[in-house]
Amino acid sequence: MYPVAVGLLLLLGMAAFAYTMNNRIALIRMAKGKDWRFEKLTDRVKALFVYAFGQKRMMNRKREFWSGLWHAFIFWGFCVLSIRTVTLFGQGFDPGFHLPGFGGALGNFYNLNKDIFTVLVFGGCIYFLIRRFITMPDRISISAEGWAILFTIMSLMITEWLYDGGQIALGNHHADPLWAPVGTLAAKVITAFGWQPGTTHAVSISSYFIHLALVLGFLNFLPYGKHFHIITALPNVFMRNLKPYGALNPINLEDENITTFGIDKINEFSWKDVMDMYTCTECGRCTSQCPAYNTDKPLNPKQFLIEMKDFLVHHSDKIVNGNEEQKAEVLGQSLVPQVIDSEILWSCTTCRACEEACPVFIEYVQKIVDMRRHLVLMRGEFPAEAQATLRNIENNGNPWGIGFDERANWAKGLGVPTLAEKPEVEVLYWV
Ligand code: SF4
Ligand code: SF4
User: Fold this and answer.
1) Which CATH number applies to 266-379: 1.10.1060.10, 1.10.260.40, 3.40.640.10, 3.90.226.10?
2) What is the ipTM score, two decimals?
3) Ligand 1 test: best mutation among 365, 366, 367, 370, most atoms within 8 Å of CB?
4) 116 with 157: CB under 8 angstroms?
5) For 234-243, how does the pLDDT look when each residue is reduced to its tens digit (9 = 90+)?
6) Using one digit for the tens of pLDDT, what is the confidence trace for 66-90?
């Protein structure tokens, strides 16, 4: 149809996307922490279907059900419409292009689903717009990015309808109304407007190119914000933590080759930790469940992850393309307190309520514990509350700071003999 224009668009869009992704992948490769995540493959595939494709955690809380369901419609719609996107690019080179097997009955069945999902995706965007305007749940931060993405998705659906409807109205695409209900309806609306064939053609083809440009623009925009999860959520769910619940990575205090413990610098995290940073949707479910946040402690788990991701992405150019000095400047920087205040780390109760709530299986506790380990083992820093307790244990052998000379006071008048008074004993109660 328009091979040169579509080819150029595709080339430019994919080149820009490859450049950005190269940067993001380089940041994952920079992470030094080891984390093996390829065991229990059956469980991982199962989780992928239940939690990623099935969107289970989006809908398993009663009060989140409707938002979860509409989010699921958008997600499923993206899966279905990705086939349409490939077809549309292919039709730029050959008007009759379709993916293998999609020419006959399967093509009709697909077309029906595609039409239904364009409506559901559009409906989902309307739902989330209304939610942002009217209900505004506390856990959600309203951002320009959110608006931009919703309007882009809606524009994608509108241009799809205009292109498809225009082609049906012009007779270029012979669609059975049963298998193409939305396209047929769009064609009827266009016909009802009384447009000349030239106008219909111009609107349809403009919509086609706007649609393709929006797809590529959308793709390129994703790695720069929270909607990167559209790309990273599936692998992140697949790589979820399958260790026994609550288990932490042990530290080997016996290994004399280890020169540092815990995590202090951004590149000491593992590749999975960086994936977590990329995957956060900023939905705030973790924060809404966090007992520390809900009792006015300085910890906000969502914000904790955002701060580290912002630090990483902000310095990505220096890390990936910088000279040795620039790299060292970023990778030598301690995260505490420059990026995360130690009080935030000490506020965590390690209850994992955040991890239970997270729809994309982001892990918090190991990160927080690793950062605490560094503070304690390498810097000798403890939370203010623990400092007095530890000093008391060190000085007096008990956490309350009771002096040695007062240890036996509790037994006064009870007739309990001390070891000094009665050295031969069968049972010794040591206090
Ligand atoms: S593990 Fe820590 S961050 Fe997560 S919910 Fe519990 S207190 Fe909050
Ligand atoms: S960590 Fe998970 S629950 Fe928390 S904001 Fe990000 S995606 Fe939502």
Assistant:
1) 1.10.1060.10
2) 0.98
3) 365
4) no
5) 999 999 999 9
6) 999 999 999 999 999 999 999 999 9
